[in-house]
Fold this sequence. Notes:
This protein has 403 residues and is mostly helical. It has one domain (3-402): Na+/H+ antiporter like fold (Up-down Bundle), CATH 1.20.1530.20. 74% of the residues lie in helices and 0% in strands. The protein is built from 15 helices and no strands. The radius of gyration is 20 Å and the shape is globular.
Amino acid sequence: xxxxxxxxxxxxxxxxxxxxxxxxxxxxxxxxxxxxxxxxxxxxxxxxxxxxxxxxxxxxxxxxxxxxxxxxxxxxxxxxxxxxxxxxxxxxxxxxxxxxxxxxxxxxxxxxxxxxxxxxxxxxxxxxxxxxxxxxxxxxxxxxxxxxxxxxxxxxxxxxxxxxxxxxxxxxxxxxxxxxxxxxxxxxxxxxxxxxxxxxxxxxxxxxxxxxxxxxxxxxxxxxxxxxxxxxxxxxxxxxxxxxxxxxxxxxxxxxxxxxxxxxxxxxxxxxxxxxxxxxxxxxxxxxxxxxxxxxxxxxxxxxxxxxxxxxxxxxxxxxxxxxxxxxxxxxxxxxxxxxxxxxxxxxxxxxxxxxxxxxxxxxxxxxxxxxxxxxxxxxxxxxxxxxxxxxxxxxxxxxxxx
Length: 403
């Protein structure tokens, strides 16, 4: 049996499944990611020798690029979903989560993993950096509804905006771990990291994302409406704008993740009630879902292939603690003073979903520097993501109906 044709057939089957499966799984209050995860495990247990082996060690470059592509597409869709114009007041909840929760979480997780798991300081810092951000890809069950649907609420908005913002802001923390591992002169590496990896790359990403969003809005909203020219209403514009923004920003050494999200939010804020936003989001959402189904399928295959082989009981306990207790408590405390009910704050805190973004940051860092404990890192991060998929996937649909 030719492995290429078998792989193509499976991708087609996953694409067809992702068209109708979400409707079915919502009725039974589970996430469809769990189904694709199980399908990957079962398929690889039967046909594993005839399929590409999903090993992040052997396929490091592919792991980086596939997760990178999925994250930037998800960030575009996330920005287009947000039915709330940007202001520091109206975005107070997600801004609190990325400033208060994210920084405190990074420091505390670094300390916990260093002390209780005995990882070297640089390895513990890397784990804290890759596991701190919530995921814009796997969080579709708790994110805002499509544009202008009128079905969003404070919890969904907070989780959506947080996922969009912090998946880009995790990059400085990842670079900090890389710089820490490389440097022996700590004062020198810190200031160079702060100047370039924080100030330049963040500002470059934000500015270019804003400019690209304005440019796309001018060509596809202002020109057709005001000047009756170039009346184009293709959903492909969303994907093209996403890729163009990311590529240009990275060429200027900015953070492309931040740029894509800012571009999407800027575009979304232009003619807020325009129906074209729905078409843009619909197209990018379809691309995101088929890529997600493939990646989760491969993750299921990697679970069968032994990616958790280096997991210890202490690592497993740490992972469960981070998902079930640490994130909800620290996120809840960071929302102190925000105008949300206590129930909404706890739900927002609990659904800090981990996923594809963590895989990207880990594979990216291991490509840039030869960290020790690589197999342990993959096992631990994979178990955190697995725990998040199962715990959040079995509860999110039901809880979002109760908000």
